[in-house]
Structure formats: C-alpha cells, structure tokens
Write a structure and sequence with these properties.
Elements lengths: L2 E8 L8 E8 L2 E6 L8 E4 L4 E4 L1 E3 L15 H4 L3 E6 L14 H8 L16 H11 L4 E7 H9 L8 H17 L3 E5 L10 H13 L3 E5 L7 H15 L3 E3 L13 H13 L4 E5 L4 E5 L13 H8 L2 H13 L7 H5 L4 E5 L13 H8 L3 H11 L5 E5 L3 H8 L4 E3 L20 H16 L5 H8 L1 H6 L16 E4 L20 E6 L2 E5 L2 E2 L7 E2 L3
Parallel strand pairs: 1-4, 1-5, 6-7, 7-8, 8-9, 8-21, 9-10, 10-11, 11-12, 12-16
Antiparallel strand pairs: 1-2, 2-3, 5-17, 13-15, 14-15, 17-18, 18-19, 19-20
Length: 536
C-alpha cells in the first residue's frame, strides 16, 4: 500500500453510523478497509480521535472561472472539498464562437481580479476540457455546459426568442458538450442572456442533455416574489424533457417570500411522486452574492456590457432604470424591492479609488458620496465598468433550516476558490467561499444539532456523486478513488465573516485527492492531483 489511515472513526458516506477501522490506499484508490498493518504502507496517517470520510463534493461551484489563476484552489481544498461541479448558473467556459468570444470574455471577467484576464483560446467543449487537463488542478472538476454560454455562442446577448435554426445550432453545441463529458446543462435565468429564453427553448436543450444521461441544474428565474412560479418552471422542464432537475442554491429571498420554501419543497415532493427526479443544493448563510449589475432590469443588459454602460450614461435610460429597480417588472425580481438598499453591500470593485467602499451597503455609500442611493449605484457601475460584485442579506434562518433538513437537499458553496494571499485575496467575498462545509459540520451539526454527522456527510459526498453521475466518488469503499477528508469533529468550524472573510476554517487536518496528500497536518502541500471527471 502507498498510504494507510489508521485509528479513525470512519463515516463512509452512506448515512450509516461510524465504525472503527483503517483505510489502505494504492495507486490513488482505496484498496482495503479493516484492521491493517501500518508497516505495510509507505505513509501512515494517524487519525486517532478524528473522523475519516469521503472528500466533499461541491454541488454548485464557479471555480472554473478562476482556475487559471488559482489551480491550488486553497479556500475550497482547505474546507475538505475534493470535487467541484462547475459551469453553474448558465455560465460555462465553452462552447465559444469566434464572433462572440470577446463578449463572453467580457461577461466572465467581472468575477476575476483586475490584474488578471480571462482568455478563451478554445472553441468546443472537448477542446476546453483537454486544455484544463493539461493545466492541472488540486481538486477534481466535473463540468456542466451553460445555457447562457451556448446562447451567447449562437445569438450573443439578443433579447428575443431563438429561431428554429438558432435552436438547432444550440442543440448541436449541447450535444457536443455532453459527448465530451459534461454532466448536464445549467441555466441562469436571472442573468443575460439566459433571462431572454422561453421555457420551450430550455426544454428542447434539456432533452439533448437527457439523451446523454445528464441533469438540468437551474438558477431559477426568481427566488423572491416569483419563487413559486420559477420552481414550477424548473419542474416543467424536468417533466417535459424527461431529465433530472437540480434547483440551485434553493432559497426564499426577501421578507415577503420568507416561509415559501414550505410550498416549494412540497412542490418538489409532489413532482417526485409524479416521476420528476428533482433535488436541490444550498449554502448555509443568510446572504447571497452575485454581480452588482444583477440589480438592473433585463432590458438594460441587452447587447452585453458595453451597451449596458451606454444606457447607464443616458439620463432618459437612467430614469427608467431607477423606476424599474424600485417598482420591479412583471416576471423579474428586483433585489432592491425585495431586500432593500440597506441590505445590499459591495463585495468587490476593480478600481483603487472605490476600494474603500468594499463591505459597505448602498445606503452608506450614498451618504459617503452625498447622492441619492440609486444615483450612487448607477455611478458606481459606470466607474467600475460594470465589474463589481455584491452581497445581499435576504434570507430567513427558518427557511435555511427547513431546506437543509429536507432529504432532497445537498451542499454547495456557490463560490469560486480564493486565497488569503496574492490577487485572490482581493475584496470581501462571501464567507461561504471559505467556510461552507466547516460551518455545516461545526454550527449545524455539533452546536445546533440540526443534522446528524452521518446525514450531513451523506449530503456532502455520496448524494452529489449520485446526482451528477460521478462514478467511483463519494463513498469510502474498496475500488473507489481515495478522495478523503480527516477532520476533528470537536473543533471544526468556519472562521470567515462578512467583515473579515479571508480566513481559513479550523479542524480540517488531512485532505487526500486521488490518494495524494493535498492538506497534511492542516497545511497545503501544493499538490496538483485533481482530474477532469467526465460523465460516462
């Protein structure tokens, strides 16, 4: 054996009670579980007093956008995340049409540091996956193909229905991605250009993904006042396309919607009874995070970022924008209307002059600038060329716990990998970037007893592996890949806060990816042992 982990309490990912035992690893896979002799292995890891479980699988990640900057994925690997499902919310890094390459790069650049750039040098999904394999990464990556990216490759950011010819071209892109190994199709229906698509378009593309055994993962069309209708749309796609549905980061956003998860979970239960395979993922925080430009109504985004900025500079368009933000539009959830200006804070900006505004809410920023709050928002977007992110405090603890304890829920960070040093330490990202999994295990398992330890680990391991078809992952069993986390159940906890997010968690002692030590004694070894996981 290459490595043996001895003296640990093994939780194997099936929701079975822990048991005492040792784990032997050879050639990256688990070879034996039982009473083993340390002398038979080259490396011995003593896990006395610690939990040994499968590596955590992040069901909802955006790390694909910054993998070229941060292949060591520090903030995720230190949480025990050994596999990330990326390409969520309709945004994947392929396919890329030459005519719209710059438009896609500009759209994705709002999520990366100012000093860096994103360069999409491939066209097809297969070329993209091969490029990532050659580059290497610390964690395993499974990829969804994004509906928004597919639509961009065919139609750019046009605000209209697709023609039959355009729909056929989109279907060809989805088929190519699925053949290359994508695990499914994602949509982001509050973002351009996905927000411009009709349900029928989503159904037709989802049918293609279904033909290859994929899933449909959706950031639904609204999580506030349109939550119930938006969940209904996702369920309709699943029913009409015959595809499993994953509702992304399920929540009820805004006070008027608090408690509505009782209804949406009931809808999911009823749909399963009718044969729709639906599940969801969730992060354990009361705030969300996304692009600041998401506060703008759909029509402002048409044509891409350059067109958006021109509208922000027009007095006539500004007046209309503010009216729509304050009042909302039919079928579009205004975050400001749902949550209030005071509950929206700036997470990151690109310019040095506005760095002092990071962490402050829009009401505070308006006071600093001596302007109306809507003016402060629009001016800031212009100054930052649209490249800013925000944190929105919008959720109720009751909804969080209701979703968390539901059998259809699994865990996801809705983040990308950052670091406490270098360019990936800029801004004030959401604490979920650093703390999602330790927070579940420390706060919701140990302190609040909302979940049992075994059930929480199932939601982090075998459940997402099953959902996304990740064979050989998510369980501790002979023949499975040795993605393993060793942690202290008495000390594990998140440390990141909204005020000071760049803090690694406590209690993660060892992390192995494909049998290679990536975290050892709590420290990052800088190992690059991850793989691209293709759906077979």
């Amino acid at each position: 054996m290459d490595t043996v982990i001895v003296n640990g309490k093994i939780i194997n990912g099936t929701n079975s009670p822990w048991f005492s035992g040792d784990i032997g690893i050879k050639n990256g896979k688990i070879s034996r579980i039982g009473k083993l002799k340390p002398s038979e292995a080259s490396v011995v890891v003593d896990a006395k007093g610690l939990i040994v479980c499968p590596g955590f699988i992040d069901a909802h990640s955006h790390t694909d956008m910054i993998l070229h900057l941060n292949p060591k994925t520090e903030s995720t690997i230190r949480q025990g995340i050994t596999t990330m499902v990326v390409g969520n919310c309709g945004f994947s890094l392929a396919p890329v049409a030459p005519a719209y390459r710059n438009l896609l790069e500009r759209s994705l650049s709002q999520f990366i540091p100012q000093e860096a750039a994103i360069s999409l040098t491939w066209n097809t999904f297969d070329e993209y996956l091969k490029h990532e394999e050659e580059r290497g990464m610390a964690s395993n990556i499974a990829c969804l193909v994004g509906h928004g990216t597919v639509r961009t490759a065919v139609m750019g950011y046009e605000r209209r229905s697709s023609t039959p010819e355009e729909l056929e071209m989109m279907k060809e892109h989805v088929a190519e991605a699925m053949k290359a190994g994508a695990v499914g199709l994602s949509s982001g229906l509050i973002y351009p250009p996905g927000m411009y698509a009709e349900t029928s378009e989503l159904v037709e593309l989802a049918k293609v993904a279904a033909d290859y055994g994929g899933v449909y993962a959706s950031h639904i069309r609204g999580e506030g006042e349109t939550l119930i209708e938006a969940v209904g749309e996702a369920l309709k796609v699943g029913r009409d396309a015959g595809i499993p549905v994953q509702i992304s980061h399920h929540k009820a956003s805004g006070k008027s919607s608090w408690g509505h998860t009782q209804k949406t979970l009931e809808m999911m239960e009823n749909s399963r009874a009718e044969g729709v395979d639906v599940t969801c993922d969730q992060y354990p925080y009361e705030a969300g995070m996304t692009s600041l430009a998401t506060l703008l109504p759909p029509w402002v985004h048409e044509g891409g970022m350059d067109s958006l900025l021109q509208r922000l500079k027009s007095a006539e368009d500004r007046s209309r924008i503010v009216k729509d933000i304050v009042n909302g539009l039919p079928g579009w959830m205004s975050h400001v209307k749902e949550c209030g200006w005071e509950n929206i804070a700036i997470s990151s900006v690109r310019s040095e002059q506005n760095r002092r505004l990071e962490g402050k809410n829009l009401v505070e920023i308006a006071k600093i600038r001596g302007t109306e709050v809507a003016t402060a928002l629009l001016d800031l977007l212009v100054e930052e060329a649209g490249q800013a992110t925000m944190i929105i405090f919008s959720m109720d603890e009751g909804d969080i716990r209701r979703v968390m304890t539901h059998p259809y829920q699994m865990i996801g960070t809705d983040s990308w990998a950052v670091s406490t040093t270098g360019i990936m330490a800029e801004g004030k990202p959401h604490p979920r970037f650093y703390g999602t999994y330790p927070r579940i295990l420390g706060r919701y398992v140990r302190e609040l007893e909302v979940l049992s330890l075994e059930e929480a680990i199932r939601k982090m391991t075998s459940f997402p592996a099953q959902r996304f078809g990740l064979s050989g992952r998510g369980l501790l069993a002979p023949g499975f890949w040795a993605d393993i986390v060793v942690f202290d159940p008495d000390t594990i906890i998140d440390k990141a806060t909204y005020e000071n997010p760049h803090q690694y968690p406590e209690g993660i002692v060892h992390v192995l990816v494909n049998g290679e030590a990536t975290i050892s004694g709590g420290e990052n070894t800088a190992a690059i042992a991850g793989k691209i996981l293709r759906r077979l």
